[in-house]
Write a structure and sequence with these properties.
- The chain is globular, with a radius of gyration of 19 Å.
- α2 runs antiparallel to α4 and α7 runs antiparallel to α9.
- It has a two-stranded antiparallel ribbon with strand order 1-2.
- By secondary structure, it is mainly α.
């Protein structure tokens, strides 16, 4: 009898997880696909890939936009209307944010093939190991520590984020702030080339 209840519980649990993925996919198609694509692998160099980000990270990002803590640029949608991540996230219910966060965490981050300056890659790699790898683990290829995946992310997008951090237009986590401020312009360029190389994959 006990074994039967265990089997029923496991089946119910797996069906719940499966349902969350399906709900997340429908929500992604409705709210996210126009910019990030349904699987979170943006094809626009100005818009980040979010596939494979941990559920906690995606939830936190959406919550930052929803609360107004993080600013968002205006984008014209397919209907010709201007929108942004603040407006979109404020229209999401709590359970929808949770479902989207889980769904994108289950997607595979596709490394984007981009042009990069090969002679700067090794310098960027060493800078990453020295300053960034504690959070952006596995050379920036993983979101296991609830930090964004950097390897293979769009260079244009990352460059814009670097500029916002440098100009103090975007707030940094405390643990990142003291390390980022050690970087000069050449260091930032080397990091961008390293990340855009997709770690040479």
């Amino acid at each position: 009898m006990f074994r039967t209840w265990v089997i029923i519980f496991l089946i119910s649990f797996n069906l719940t997880i499966f349902a969350d993925v399906l709900d997340g996919k429908l929500l992604a198609e409705k709210y996210c696909s126009e910019c990030h694509q349904t699987d979170g692998n943006s094809t626009d160099e100005d818009i980040p890939k979010i596939a494979g980000f941990s559920a906690a990270l995606t939830y936190d990002i959406l919550d930052q936009f929803r609360s107004g803590y993080r600013d968002a640029k205006e984008i014209k949608n397919k209907d010709g209307q201007m929108t942004n991540m603040i407006k979109i996230s404020k229209n999401l219910k709590e359970d929808e944010i949770e479902a989207l966060s889980f769904y994108f965490s289950e997607q595979t981050f596709k490394i984007e093939k981009q042009n990069f300056t090969e002679k700067l890659v090794e310098t960027g790699k060493q800078l990453h190991l020295d300053l960034c790898n504690d959070c952006h683990v596995d050379l920036g290829t993983s979101s296991d520590d609830d930090a964004p995946i950097l390897a293979g992310q769009w260079k244009v997008y990352l460059d814009e984020q670097f500029k916002q951090y440098s100009n103090r237009e975007r707030e940094m986590p405390r643990r990142m702030k003291r390390k980022f401020r050690k970087l000069d312009d050449n260091d930032k360029e080397a990091l961008l080339e390293f990340y855009s190389s997709g770690n040479n994959q």
